[in-house]
């Protein structure tokens, strides 16, 4: 279940706090589990700011809080506040992601819906293992383009489902989605996953080693479903990590 944390802060040093947030983003690249954050300034009260941070789940939020970089930045943030910030923890029970026009105009935008569908694949399917959801997200004739395969293009959802199972059996995937760009009928998602090598992978027996991989996936949508996907990722970097063994 998606989890949101609301941070209520009063400060006369917002520019310093904004730079501190930039430092945290840079320091936790590839490790943080937060997927979206926004900061609002109170129009009625000077120095009153509210930050809303979204996580795939409460468990992901806890992993994010346990990062040493988060502890350090939080201590510095408290020092910049006029009073100690307050926190509100929320489990999201309804999520209507609205497009640019608003419901009074053209309603939910196709681009907004497509971005949400792409996120659901990474969060609910690839990370959480809800493979049954793939029938809802993907078109039956899905075309899969994967630069890491001997046969780079495969047609059919079952091939994609088998691929997801194979990766999940080898690693306990935890995705960080860095950015999404949508245009026309395509959505490009830049991601990093971190996981423990727990199963056989391309001849590499399980090592228990924690590894990471970066990549970009572009999905093409048709009638609201993912009809085609192009996967580009750092396979060479992953193999080097597995071959080097635990540090």
Write a brief structural summary.
The chain has helices spanning 14-27, 58-65, 68-80, 110-127, 134-137, 157-170, 235-244; strands at 3-10, 36-41, 48-55, 86-91, 138-146, 153-155, 174-183, 186-196, 210-222, 225-233.
Q: Can you describe what's shown?
A:
The protein has 247 residues and is α+β, with helices and mostly antiparallel strands. It folds into two domains: 3-91, Alpha-Beta Plaits (2-Layer Sandwich), CATH 3.30.70; 110-244, Nuclear Transport Factor 2, Chain: A, CATH 3.10.450. The protein contains seven helices and ten strands. The strands form two sheets. It has a six-stranded mixed beta sheet with strand order 6-5-10-9-8-7. Strands 2-3-1-4 form a four-stranded antiparallel beta sheet. The protein is globular. It starts with a strand and ends with a helix. The relative contact order is 0.13. The model is unreliable at 99-108 (pLDDT under 50). This is Ester cyclase. One of its GO terms (biological process) is polyketide metabolic process. Pfam families: SnoaL. It comes from Streptosporangium nondiastaticum. InterPro entries: Cyclase_SnoaL-like, NTF2-like_dom_sf.
